[in-house]
Amino acid sequence: MADVISELSEDGHVRAMMRLDRQPDGSLMVEINDGGPNTAQMRLTPEKAALLAEIGFRFATEWSPALAPDRVNGRIAAAMQSGF
Questions:
Q1: Residue 59: what are its φ and ψ, rounded to 5°?
Q2: Distance of CA 80 to the CA centre of its chain
Q3: Which of 15, 17, 45, 57 is close enough to 80 for a disulfide, judged by CB 3.0 to 4.6 Å?
């Protein structure tokens, strides 16, 4: 099961989306879309996925409170802390 984190514009359209999907081998599939036709995909090893989780958790809880609404930070922090 994948976790999807999206940012909505004021009129309710998706401005950006990140999908995180843990694979059976422990790797992590990451898909990022800019709200338009541009999509990037990558597979992270279990070690790199753990590093991304730590960076994301710190970003959501320590570094970005002024940059994004608390509800978005809370969702990101919860996903990162759970290891996706």
A1: -60, -45
A2: 8
A3: 57
Enumerate the β-bridge partners of residue 33: 17, 39
How many C-beta atoms lie closer than 10 Å to residue 17's C-beta? 16
Lookup: tokens for 80: 């990162």
Q: What is the pLDDT at residue 51?
A: 81
Domain ranges of the chain: 2-81
Residues 9/1, Cβ–Cβ less than 8 Å? no
Residue-wise pLDDT tens digits, 8-67: 777 777 677 778 888 898 888 888 887 778 888 889 898 888 887 777 766 666 655 555
Phi and psi, residue 23, nearest 5°: -95, 155
